[in-house]
Amino acid sequence: MSESQNKRGELLLRKAELAKRKKRLHRRRKLLDWGVFTGYLLPSLAGVLLFFFLPLLMLLKTSFQKSPTNSDFVGFANYGRVITNSAFVNASKNTLTFALISVPLAIVLSLLVALLLNSGMPGKSIFRSILLNPMMVPVASIVLIWQVFFSYNGVINGWFASLFGMNKIDWLKSSYAQIVIFLMFIWKNLGYNMVLFLAALNNIPTEVIESAKMDGAGPVKRFFSIKMHYLSSTIFFVGIMSLINSFKIFREVYLLTGDYPFDTLYMLQHYMNNAFRHLDYSKLSAGAIVMCIAMIIIVGFLFFAEAKFGGDIEE
Amino acid sequence: MPYRNEELIRKQRKLAATQARRKVYVHVEKPVSMFDSMSTEEREAFFTKERKRAAGVLARRNTLIKCAMGLGICIAIIASILALIPIFYTFINSFMSSAEIQDNYGVIFQSLSGHAKESGAAYLDKTPVLRMVPEKVTFEQYKTLLFMSPTYLLKFWNSVIMVVPIVLGQLVVSSLAAYSFARYRKRRREILFFSYVILMLMPFQVTLVPNYMIAEKLHLLNTFWAIILPGIFSTFSCFLLTKYMRQIPSSYVEAAKLDGATEWQIFTKIALPTCKSAIFAMAILLFIDYWNMVEQPLVLLTDEQKQPLSVFLSQINEAEIGIAFAASALYMIPALLIFLWGEEYLVEGISHSGIK
């Protein structure tokens, strides 16, 4: 009797030990997995930490200091200085207006062109490559020709004068300047957005469209009830990409008009560049933090909107 | 007898079925159709008329579709022309002699450079002229650009020396990171990945100041490294490559694992070849992006000698417009060549980046 009990106890012990070993092995395997994949991530993570996250923290610190050398804590004084600065307010207003108008405009136009190209037109791929071409052209090398077109004595003014007898318009130094940069933005980004939309349109199952056609839905109805439904996540993506690109319009503006452009063209980057020149770091860092927070709010809002309105499309 | 019984039952059923049928199918008089009421001649006349009408409707619809298509093609052609005009004219102008450029555009740039007082009178009666074809095709501008003015070539070289390491470095670093993000999906990693995405979305206006500060701390300011290092660790390609690598079917990876492949083998033999087109597309996108950079060199490189061509091109003066056109064209050529070479990859890469 006692022998069998002993045996059973031994068995239990061995079982427990086995389970323990298994657990240990499992843990080791997990650790190994973690180690391997962290190893793959390490170069990137180290770089990102060193060049982006760490400096962002430094930035946060300097934004509360009087100056980089004088580390007195001044609270939100720098922020106050930045927010009340008229140049900063003007710059952020211009940048925001530009983004608010150009992003929807870019979405609508490129969607229209994508629909046009997708309607069974001959030569679709040729048009696609031609329209994608401007994306490849560096801003710097196209600026010269923009100047030829849009400067005060430029070609467009010449044409308008000879065709309609209009007075010359100073395109780059008047309120028309914004129209010019919209044109440039759309010229550059239409192709990229269009390719995104074309891909999304190709991904719509043809059966759905065909059955709608049979049920008598016209092209307009088909577009709004079916295609829009499938396109909404792409519209979101295009919106975000356009938003990022709309901040890059500074390049065109800077290369065309220099450090101090017309009032409505004064972008946030101009403000930053001019602040760099005055070496006013605490103001700069406060400005950057304000922008960072604004960006996070905008992006968070977009993600929220996407989750709310676009959530039901994922198959 | 069982046999008789069965036959009886069958007969009864048959009767019931017949009665039921009689109830359902009530005999109805055949209606007199229009077809029957007409005589043979009338019929033929009617059908020819109908055929004509149908053909008319069809033809009208076809012409409408054709018109719409024609209109669409017209719009597409106009859009394409608008897209190509600036590129086209830059090349055309680069083949003109400097005298011709002065003649055509002098009036524009003279007013820009500010000393209109002395030389302005010469241009007063002139309007700028856009020519489709240069009066005389010369390579004069390119000659002066390539052999007589080393500044331009130096700036071009500056651009190359910054862009190439960034593209190669970022591809290596981010494909490794993307593999890790794609294969190891735990909660904390996802949060880290999301922070990468947020970082990707930050415009230059935000990241430039941190870049400047860290460059100053590491004494990299005014060297190429100040631009190259943050460029290498930028997270844009990491995001897109991760999206791609997550689409690799897990059965591939499992099969490889069962055959005893190490992670490195899975990475080099499965993940990288599957994502080949995405990596090429990424290389092209990165190349354009950094070939195009203006903000970073403006802030991080105070030394004029180290500025890339993109910044330098904006500082031309009146006398050098001709050369500037040639330099612009030259600066465009690598990007356009890469586009011609890798358009398929690029389109495919962009297309896949938008699809979840």
Class of secondary structure makeup of chain B = mainly alpha
Q: From the structure provided, what is the oligomeric state, counting identical versus distinct chains? A: heterodimer
Q: Helix amount of chain A, in percent?
A: over 70%
Describe the main β-sheet of chain A briefly. none
Q: What is the percentage of strand-forming residues of chain A? A: under 5%
Report how far the terminal alpha carbons of chain B are from each other.
76 Å
> Given the helix and strand composition of chain A, which structural class is it?
mainly alpha
User: What is the third-level CATH name, the topology of the largest domain in chain A?
Assistant: MetI-like fold
What is the general shape of chain B? flat
Roughly what percent helix of chain B?
A: over 70%
Estimate the global geometry of chain A from the Cα principal axes: flat
- Main interface pair? A-B, 100 and 98 residues
Rg of chain B, rounded, reads 37 Å
